[in-house]
Amino acid sequence: MRWRAFKARLAPYYLVLPGWLWLVIFFVVPLLFMLSVSTMTGNILDGFKQTWHLSTYVDAWNSYHTQIIRSLIYGLIATAVCLIIAYPIAYWIAFRGGRHKQVYLFLLLLPFFVSFVIRTQSWEFMLDDHGMVVGLLRTFGLVGSNFHILQTPVAVIGGLIYNFMPFTVLPIYVALERVDPALLEASSDLYANKASAFLRVIFPLSIPGVFAAVLLTFVPVASDYVNAQILGGGTNTTMVGTIIESQYLTNLDYPTAASLSFILMAVLLIGIFLYARLLGTEDAMEMAGA
Amino acid sequence: MTTLTAEVVKPPEPTAPPAPRRRRRFNGRWVLPTWLALVILWLVAPIIVMAVYGFNDGNGKVVSTTWQGFTFKWYTNIFAYSDLTDALVNSITIALITTAIATVLGTLMGVALGRWRFRGAGSVNLLLFANIAAPEVVLGAALLSMFLTLGVPRGYLTIILAHVMFSVAFVVVTVRARMAGLDPALEEASRDLGAGAITTFFKVTLPVIKSGVFAGALLAFAMSIDDYIITSFNNGSTQTFPLWVWGARNRLAGSVPPQVNVMGTLIFVVGVLLAITGAISNRRKAA
Questions:
Q1: Beta carbons within 10 angstroms of residue B122's beta carbon
Q2: For residue A49, which of A255, B29, B74, B165 sits 20 to 30 Å off, Cα-Cα?
Q3: Which of residues 82-101 of B touch A (CB under 8 A)?
């Protein structure tokens, strides 16, 4: 009998083990390998040696802090715009969506049925100097012939907003959906008008969702390079992801690429922690899906 | 010329006296639905453009930015580029294998985390959270670091390893959320009636959480077939659909052949149909 109880207590471990092992071997251990690579010195021809030098980090920061800071700024702008777009939508679907909530959510997720690269490619096609958007603006004489959208920060940030906005809607929607409509009735019974009911009841309850939304939007936006590569141009829109990718795959300077990855992760982690402390939400992580 | 247009554009004078306008209060009810409609339009605009230009005639090397006439040419010639076809087949098979593995592993984890409170559950949740929150470029670069250090050749297999790694946590999250709606008494009743743990899982637990498992599987499939960043670090010489498109863009100065539009459109249509049938059949079973 006690043996059975013991076995029953082990059940969750059996179930978790395979997936946990997969994540440890292909997610945690690789990070340790990357940590090790980041402190190596050498070059691709003579081979890299483990020297535990931290100088690569300093060099990487000195060479590429422009791109890191640019990535953070693009991330902040895109996340802010995503919030402005997404919050009203999430609010309306959660409280006024009626029977068709799932349909609205599905429509918002339609872009995910088209490959990320192709979606972005399609925007390049539309924003091209001879394409429909700029062409239309020129036909109506709204812009001069030297007006471009492509290869500007506007195009890159626009693409980032487009590609990641659905990640902003969903967590806010989940948080608002959990708000009991009875609370709204209660606040109107207590003579709160619509604005103060929103500001003092609904919005505070949605903060964990907003936190998760910011996290799920800001992190992929700041580390993205697909939008900068396709919609941006030259070096004035390069983001840190591009540098990591090209150092790894083109220049084969693995230590620099690895250090940059850790710098990016450290910056994002510090940002997340400060932000979590600022909001002081306990269940924010739960809302983000963990 | 300019004066002429100006005259034409000039609006005609209203003949009838303006109707007495009732002072209407601005109706705020329509603001948010309009906003939602505009956003959905913005979200689908590039998809519509992709689909429409898949029917655009032209020389076939790249999609023409101007409309050359309607054609089905690219649909009948969809497999004109054999390496593009190979890349698409790779993408589909990789996504199917990834979905199978990630759904099994993720469902088991999700069931355990949703069903029991056990020592270590917190750290498993933290691991999942870190996996979801980590930037893709870091995930890809870290895996490549390991493969390079250990001398593992990159290719089809490493792509699958990577895809399961980044999609499994999403399956866990959807399944775990669904487990919250499962009454533990149901499972206990099944066990009391003499069903074994495995029978109980398939006859009681799985039917209840099926919509969560389905949603998780769909998510895993979509993430796998869509992924560019992590795959580009670990593909070796194996091509997937997004990687081929990226390569074509680099060769063709930022353009792609029309077959890409056609394949993108077909993937979109199949994906949407699958999702809709799945949702409907789930709803029907639940009712």
A1: 11
A2: B165
A3: none
Q: Which residue has the tokens 């029953």?
A: A8
CATH number (1.10.3720.10, 3.40.50.1950, 3.30.450.20, 3.10.20.310) of B91-236 reads 1.10.3720.10
The dihedral of CA A58, A254, B98, A32: what is its sign?
negative
Query: Residues B95-120, buried b or exposed e (16+ Cβ, 10 A)?
Result: bebbbebbbbbbbbbbbbbbbbebee
ipTM of the complex: 0.88
3-state secondary structure of B287: coil
Distance CA A220, CA A225 (A): 10
Contacts of residue A254 in chain B, CB cutoff 8 Å? Answer: 145, 148
H/E element, B275 = helix B258-286
How many helices and strands in chain B, by DSSP H and E? 13, 0
Nearest to A108 among B43, B113, B132 (CB): B43
Q: Which domains does chain A have, with CATH numbers?
A: 58-287 (1.10.3720.10)
Q: Give which of A248, A266, A249 is closest to A257, Cα–Cα.
A: A248
Q: Return the structure tokens found at A280.
A: 């002081």
Whether B43 contacts A163, CB under 8 Å: no
- In tens, the pLDDT along A87-123 reads 999 999 998 888 888 899 999 999 988 989 999 999 9
